[in-house]
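JOB MANIFEST
job_type = single_chain_structure
chain_count = 1
residues = 161
[input]
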Amino acid sequence: MAYKKIVVAVDVNDASSTLMAQSIELAVKEGAELAVFHCLRQSTVAELEDRIGTFTEMDQASSHRRRIERKDAQVTHAEAWLQGLCILAKGKGIKARTHVAVGNPGEDIVEYAGDWGADLIVLGRTNRGTLADLLLGSASNHVVHHAQCSVLLVHTQQTSG
């Protein structure tokens, strides 16, 4: 089967370069277009700001405005990072685009891939362990079970830190 539209879902960790390199190699081989995708977890963006805002600011409008500004800054930073990854693909003659979502990574990957008409999703899979996956959830598990296209899991090492 020839793949024409590949979504590569990256996360901010050391494995992203390996995942991107393998996705570019596959896209070159298949003559496919790449969509480089990253999802900021909703809890990452808003949960801490809500707690801080509750204790330090009585002005709800100001707290809400700051939360939006922080989210916008995180999205802008993620978009710049993805554009940098796209330069690698474009250097190999691959048509590439970026997409940043804010929400639930597993659900958002599946939704974006479906909306774009992807025929393959490439994503990393760390070996956190069964208990951690049960407690924290697993984006890769959700994608494997809900995607309407093929899924390629690239096993990566979890970074410590």
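[summary]
The mean pLDDT is 83.
The chain has six helices and five strands.
exit_status = 0
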